[in-house]
Design a protein that fits this description.
Elements: E1 4-10, H1 15-24, E2 30-37, H2 43-47, E3 55-57, H3 66-72, E4 77-80, H4 89-94, E5 99-103, H5 117-126, E6 131-138, E7 148-155, H6 162-185
Helix pairs in contact: 1-6, 5-6
Bound molecules: glycinamide ribonucleotide.
Glycinamide ribonucleotide is lined by residues 10, 12-16, 81-82, 102-104, 116-117, 169, 173.
Length: 188
């Protein structure tokens, strides 16, 4: 059986990339083919060195290049795991239902331009929300607006801060993101 190929894209520390890699590293069905980052000094590069997977740095202006699009076509699924650049419209069209993203809120709340990482958690705490969570969704040409695949919730207490909420969200992401990817790839 040929393995399904995932390309992971990340801009940050790469804790989700690592979870996904660890989840699939002994799989007969799924392979992490490549990690792509747009930031030359992203934490994900040092974090994932041990995995011996090709890591490619792609500057923003090449995101829409033909060569890059061809490279992405070698994957069955492209996974944005903390990838913070907007996916160009043409790319979103070519890869309709082939790119997924994880977002640290219950979309459509707290999504859109500028809403990422700690900015999300700060806004959620400031608005005294009683719950937050994560959204895994297909990517289209608009920030955080593609079709939702799965959402997972957590409660927020009076004592929570953006930092404690961030930890709760990270736990949810690490628990559910790899399994959801597996579910998508297996078509169930
Ligand atoms: C994750 O919390 C992810 O949901 C968020 O970036 C973090 C990356 O963490 N993504 C967004 O905010 C996208 N709008 P990681 O580098 O430790 O995996």
């Amino acid at each position: 059986m040929t393995k399904k190929k995932i390309i992971l894209m990340a801009s940050g520390s790469g804790s989700n990339v690592q979870q996904i890699y660890e989840y699939f590293k002994n799989s007969d069905a799924v392979e992490i083919a490549m990690i792509i980052t747009n930031k030359q000094n992203a934490g994900v590069i040092a974090r994932m060195e041990y995995a011996k997977i090709p890591i490619l740095w792609i500057p923003k202006q090449y995101l829409n290049s033909e060569d890059f699009i061809e490279l992405l076509k070698t994957a069955d699924l492209i996974v944005l795991a903390g990838f913070l650049l907007k996916i160009p419209e043409q790319m979103a069209q070519v890869f309709d239902k082939k790119i997924i993203n994880i977002h640290p809120s219950l979309l459509p709340k707290y999504g859109g331009k500028g809403m990422y990482g700690h900015f999300v958690h700060e806004a959620v705490i400031q608005n005294k929300e009683k719950e937050s969570g994560i959204t895994i969704h297909y990517v289209n040409q608009h920030y955080d607006e593609g079709q939702i695949i799965a959402q997972f919730q957590c409660e927020i207490n009076d004592t929570d801060t953006p930092e404690t909420l961030s930890k709760k969200i990270q736990n949810l992401e690490h628990l559910h993101f790899p399994k959801t990817i597996e579910m998508i790839l297996m078509g169930v």
